[in-house]
Design goal:
2 copies of one chain form a homodimer.
Chain A: H1 3-10, H2 16-26, H3 37-50, E1 59-67, H4 83-93, H5 97-105, E2 108-115, E3 129-130, H6 148-165, E4 170-177, H7 182-193, H8 209-226, H9 233-240, H10 243-257, E5 262-264, H11 267-279, E6 287-289, H12 296-305, H13 321-339, H14 343-346
Parallel strand pairs in A: 1-2, 1-4, 2-3, 4-5, 5-6
Helix pairs in contact in A: 1-10, 2-3, 3-13, 5-13, 6-9, 6-10, 7-8, 7-9, 7-12, 10-11, 11-12
């Protein structure tokens, strides 16, 4: 059995009986019932995921997968393709947005070359996780992004990372870097949902009207040329996806199989999580949506999975920046659950009702 | 001149020229332009507030003002009045929601008795800031909550605290505890805005339908009996407000006068900030709205001030819990601004455009 099939088979529903026990604890803490809203939901969810009635978060790891995209040659991005590799070096050097926000959240950042069209070696590449499967995808306007086997290899790279870092108290975040990667993400949600391309396509790093029209046309062409089968998630992923998106799908599957919670970043990361969900819908109970991206297709993906984001900061950077912020909020929820006094301990009168 | 008048006179507009300089710095950081959304807005705002092109946050202080409300005797809350004093002891003991979330944000919590109907002394009251102005307000259904002078004394208590804790690198958060205090908050926004009472009244700590109807009637009666003048913020505050709300108004005024940013918690805190705003609209440029409370009147207040919240967690606990979460996000924004690499430093190619 393949590593992918093995991980998918290992995914189990969360422990529903423990959810009630978690709620019972939340209800004796010194606050009006349900008054901490989604923080209470997150605490319950953590209990269900870990199967531990008193879960702790002791290690926060954000995985930022980097890969190139052949479709960049169509002029769908505001930035040139070499920015992917340049930003990888910036990540390793600690100067990017994700580095700052991860430091603020007390999280580690692991940078993975899963598909960059560049050979990293020597100076400044210490710390890079070298797991290259392909040197960039092929141009989806002209044919499939990758073979089905390449897509599976990328997913299994993500699964292997999840297995390597899974431990009690761990929480993962997802992130990515790949110039042009909102284009495959929009193509994927259009393929899965059947939605009109323009309704799920945004301006990525900030393209103008002409480039936006071109981007919509490129995605429409990619769908016409490749005819991805929405009932076959690996077909969609390999034909119009990307290596980093596949790596994220694998990370989500691997984490879920090991009962490690995963906080998913924005639009592109959610495309990865969506592939995992289409392969096994149980993953949604292990996943936290983080922020509400300004990319239009993001909402369609989240609605499809029944996930509701909770950070509303108009972010559209990617890298894992939204996940870094959200991980700290999930941690806050667990601390509320573990550290607040009960009515009895604090000598506080309960609800009149 | 009174301390209040002096502080109001000291409020100056933020430094608009510095905002452009801050934007220029944000635009050379290694990210697509504007891609960190509201985090960039917060960084600019901090620069304008402090007048420092490289502001830092070195001290985070949340002020939780506690007071009782005569209107509690009308049965408008799900909790008995003694919970106010019990929760003050819980705050001092570190077991409440605000304590946990402030620890998570690295913030101090200062608990102020500004109007609790109880004499705190002896065991367990170390650390309490004893600034009692009144032993609870009077029942607003029957007459004014307090005299105009009592309201001014409460405001000046808040101003004095702001002056005491103002220092370079400081950021303040507001919070409160006072059983029944959503009732005066709804009364205040109804008075200022002229809105229908039911449209700005919520369920507070979680009352049932019958209690909700009673609460609306109590507020309508309070407005009829007191006839607060919406053009006179001190009239509204003293007739249908509360001591902790007045303290928060003072904290906001005092902070603004000293160019210290203030992160405002939910519904009740925003009622305090609103009084400050009605006295001098410039305060809005020094204030960060934190979360979007489930209390209906909150949105009306924020729209009146032109503030947009950024944490969407369905919170309705108060105490400063939303401010604690939001302070950490404002700090994240400042770190982004100070710590990210520039395109030139990181050797990353810029936007094609």
């Amino acid at each position: 059995m393949s590593r992918l099939q093995e991980a998918l088979n290992a995914i189990a529903p969360v422990d529903a009986a423990l959810l009630d026990k978690a709620q019972a604890r939340l209800d004796i803490l010194t606050k009006p019932k349900d008054s901490l809203g989604r923080l209470e939901e997150f605490a319950r969810k953590l209990v269900g995921i870990t199967g531990d009635i008193r879960p702790r978060i002791t290690r926060k790891v954000i995985f930022t997968f980097a890969a190139d995209h052949g479709v960049a040659e169509e002029g769908v991005s505001a930035f040139p393709k070499e920015v992917t590799r340049q930003m990888v070096l910036n990540f390793l050097n600690g100067g990017a947005g994700i580095n700052v926000l991860a430091r603020h959240a007390g999280a580690e950042v692991k940078v993975i070359d899963i598909g960059v069209d560049y050979e990293f070696d020597g100076k400044g590449t210490d710390g890079l996780l070298k797991r290259k499967v392909i040197r960039g995808t092929r141009n989806i306007r002209k044919g499939p992004a990758m073979t089905r086997q390449e897509a599976i290899d990328c997913i299994e790279t993500g699964i292997a990372l999840a297995q390597e870092y899974a431990e009690e108290g761990a929480i993962f975040g997802t992130g990515e870097m790949g110039i042009a990667n909102t284009t495959p993400s929009s193509a994927m949600i259009a393929a899965f949902s059947g939605a009109d391309v323009e309704s799920v396509t945004g301006r990525g790093t900030g393209i103008d009207d002409a480039a936006f029209k071109r981007k919509v046309k490129v995605i429409e062409d990619a769908l016409t040329v490749n005819r991805p089968d929405p009932a076959d998630p690996l077909d969609v992923l390999s034909k119009v996806g990307g290596a980093e998106i596949a790596g994220i799908a694998g990370l989500v599957i691997g984490a879920t199989a090991r009962r490690v919670p995963v906080v998913v970043d924005g639009f592109i990361s959610t495309a990865g999580a969506l592939v995992a969900y289409e392969l096994n819908p149980l993953v949604r109970d292990y996943v936290f949506a983080s922020h509400n991206s300004v990319e239009k297709g993001h909402r369609v993906m989240l609605e499809r999975m029944g996930l509701r984001p909770f950070v509303d900061l108009d972010l559209r950077l990617g890298e894992g920046t939204g996940a870094a912020i959200a991980i700290s909020l999930v941690e806050a929820a667990v601390r509320i659950y573990n550290e607040m006094a009960t009515f009895a301990d604090a000598g506080v009168s309960g609800n009149n009702a």
